[in-house]
Amino acid sequence: MIVQACINGARDAAFHPALPLTPEAMAADCRACILAGAGEIHLHTRGPDGRESLAREVMDETMRLVREAVPGTLVGVSTGDWIEKSDPRTLAAIAAWRALPDYASVNLSEPAAPAVMQALSARGVGIEAGLASVADAERLVGLLLDRPPLRILIEIGEQDFGEATAVVEGIHAVLDKAGLRRPVQLHGMDETVWHFARMAAGRRWSTRVGLEDGRLLPDGTVAEDNAALVRAAVEIYRQAAAQ
């Protein structure tokens, strides 16, 4: 089990004053999150204009600085299709990377997901299979993959606790029936961040927290930064382990 820090995502600067949007800021933030107890990092690389980018020069510079800041830490990135807004550009960017992330998340809801997964596997990059619905899970188990994903990323957008939990149970049922038993990382968004952090800890799954997913601490106050969110999640896991 790990607490992964998701430090920025697709958020813009107005979301939180501590949101890291440059390679230098990301590197410093990653270090703070690891010191706070995070086991891994997930980030969205940004170009000089602050926009998300998978371009080789952007990936290479970000990976270089982050590796220097947190040596030995596994670092992952997003491949969301909104980043390059073109499947051929996404695939070309992956093929051009020189400084590789350890893994990348792939959203099974996106049409090009199988091709993106194949491209990542060809580069030796691990895959977080992002599942946001039962349909995503059914699509994943129906694919003929060269190798199984590094982990299953169950990422829930529904904000109602009952509806969101039902989606998780449906996804897990599909995976279980298919015998696809990979490490699971469960996380919510905004209102459900801490609901799912507690659920993940109770089930001995991993989770992720950070400004990509939400800015509030469990008590409803705004977190100072990503490290504060990580510390709160680590405490949830500590309490779960003590029970």
From TrEMBL:
Coiled coil: none annotated. It comes from the Bacteria. Signal peptide: none annotated. InterPro entries: Aldolase_TIM, BKACE. PANTHER family: 3-KETO-5-AMINOHEXANOATE CLEAVAGE ENZYME-RELATED, 3-KETO-5-AMINOHEXANOATE CLEAVAGE PROTEIN. This is 3-keto-5-aminohexanoate cleavage protein.
